[in-house]
Design brief:
Structural class: alpha/beta
Strand content: 5-15%
Helix content: 25-40%
CATH topology of the largest domain: Oxidized Rhodanese, domain 1
Number of strands: 12
Number of domains: 2
Shape: globular
Strand order of the largest sheet: 3-7-6-4-5
CATH architecture of the largest domain: 3-Layer(aba) Sandwich
């Protein structure tokens, strides 16, 4: 294994990452070229993670997707039912339900998963977060999404892909998700660092997507897509290190990421993990929980 900048690069594409290791960028982000090389690899499962609240992403999948790709809808397939109160919605599914979803997708204990979407990889990152939570580190996100794949003239196919069920064994891991209580403790102590990755308007409260707008006291704002170039490729390691360091997050800083529903926050969690940050969690309830609980403190405007 050799070191380049802030990333650890593995010489083997089949490296198995242990439960306590930090995967390298080459393990967590795959190029379209690398994905193309593994299209027919029986040990690799390609997952189309395209999603939209306003359109039918499954219909887009059926019209055309990477060859052999199955489709996942994170809001339906990876999320727990909401509580009787209605909030928070979209918490990560419990271990049994998550395992059933993985089995249906043909993802087993030894499967290498490659996810892609059409919005920079943050929907695919929600699948990565779930797999990481349940002890499965063999997943990467395809840089550039399906747009880059198509621009390069690579093959697609239409229709639903059906795969044989696989055996997925959930092994719940601590240190991946943060609870409301964890975040409230961070507000009181000033540690870990709270990273709000939503849009500027969501952070200040001018764009309200819950009963209340604003942000968690003490949170720093760095939008999730600031880690990407205009064509949805990950920025260079040095540039990313500088961006997060300028916001107050150095290599040894503990962090909790959050957004509206733990999806964009999952992407930033993924990027920080690729940068070698080991103590990062995602607030699963995110603003969907915090913004709908009148007992919790908020800040409107900039901190």
């Amino acid at each position: 294994m050799r070191f380049v900048g802030a990333f650890r690069w593995s010489q083997s594409s089949d490296t198995v990452i242990s439960a306590v290791s930090v995967p390298s960028r080459s393990d967590l982000f795959w190029s379209t070229e690398r994905v193309a090389e593994h299209l027919r690899d029986p040990k690799v499962r390609i997952v189309d993670c395209r999603f939209s609240f306003d359109a039918d992403a499954r219909a887009d999948y059926l019209k055309g997707h990477l060859p052999g790709a199955v489709h996942v809808n994170w809001a339906e397939d990876l999320s727990a039912p909401p509580p009787s109160s209605g909030h928070p919605r979209w918490l990560l599914a419990g271990p049994e339900d998550f395992a059933r979803a993985m089995s249906r997708l043909g993802i087993g204990d030894d499967t290498m998963v490659v996810g892609y979407d059409a919005e920079g990889g943050h929907h695919a990152a929600r699948l990565w977060l779930g797999l990481r939570r349940y002890g499965h580190d063999r997943m990467a996100v395809m840089e550039g999404g399906i747009q880059k794949w198509r621009r390069e003239g690579r093959p697609t196919e239409a229709g639903e892909v059906r795969v044989a069920a696989a055996t997925f064994t959930p092994r719940p891991r601590e240190g991946v998700l943060a609870s409301k209580e964890d975040v409230l403790a961070a507000v009181r102590r000033g540690d870990p660092w709270l990273l709000d990755v939503r849009r500027e308007g969501e952070f200040t409260g001018s764009e309200k997507r819950a009963a209340r707008g604003g942000h968690i006291p003490g949170a720093v704002h760095v939008e999730w897509k600031d880690a990407l170039t205009s064509d949805f490729l990950l920025k260079d390691a040095a540039e990313l290190d500088t961006m997060y360091a300028d916001a107050g997050f150095g290599p040894e800083t503990s962090a909790i990421t959050y957004c509206q529903a733990g999806v964009r926050a999952a992407f930033t969690h993924l990027v920080l993990t690729a940068l070698g940050r080991e103590d990062v969690r995602t607030y699963d309830g995110s603003w969907e929980e915090w913004g709908n609980d009148p007992a919790l403190p908020i800040i409107i405007g900039r901190s």
